[in-house]
Design a protein that fits this description.
Layout lengths: L1 H8 L9 H18 L12 H9 L1 H6 L10 E3 L5 E3 L4 H13 L6 H12 L1
Antiparallel strand pairs: 1-2
Helix pairs in contact: 1-2
Length: 121
């Protein structure tokens, strides 16, 4: 798993990696891993046709959405003082992360709808 996080975030998180570089490194990693487990029985293999199909459906997002913006901070500190690596498609993901942090662990449906309405408005 460390290899995958290094592929996506880079070695030092200081510079955002573009989607085409990430995708090429992920393809290489998957090929190497698949070659390592080729002698294992099918049920024990991690790299399956289904995983590769899922990986390929995400290709368009990596190539077109994850692009380093010019003159943008690559890493920001959120209101909880956590370092967050920015991505080109992060606005939507950050919106859901914010909603998850605002919602209580349990609430009534009416309160949930009211809180959701307040966040969207």
């Amino acid at each position: 798993m460390c290899n995958i996080s290094a592929i996506i975030c880079g070695k030092n998180r200081a510079e955002m990696r573009s989607g085409d570089i990430i995708m090429a490194d992920l393809d290489k990693f998957l090929d190497e891993f698949q070659a390592m487990e080729k002698d294992l029985p099918k049920p024990e293999q991690v790299i399956t046709a289904r995983l590769l199909a899922c990986h390929n459906t995400q290709r368009k997002h990596f190539l077109h959405c994850i692009t380093p913006p010019e003159n943008a901070k690559h890493e920001i500190i959120d209101r909880f003082h956590r370092r967050v690596l920015r991505r080109g498609s992060g606005k939507n993901e950050n919106q859901w992360k914010l909603k998850k942090s605002v919602f209580p662990q349990m609430c009534s449906p009416a309160f949930g709808i009211a809180l959701q309405t307040a966040i969207v408005a």
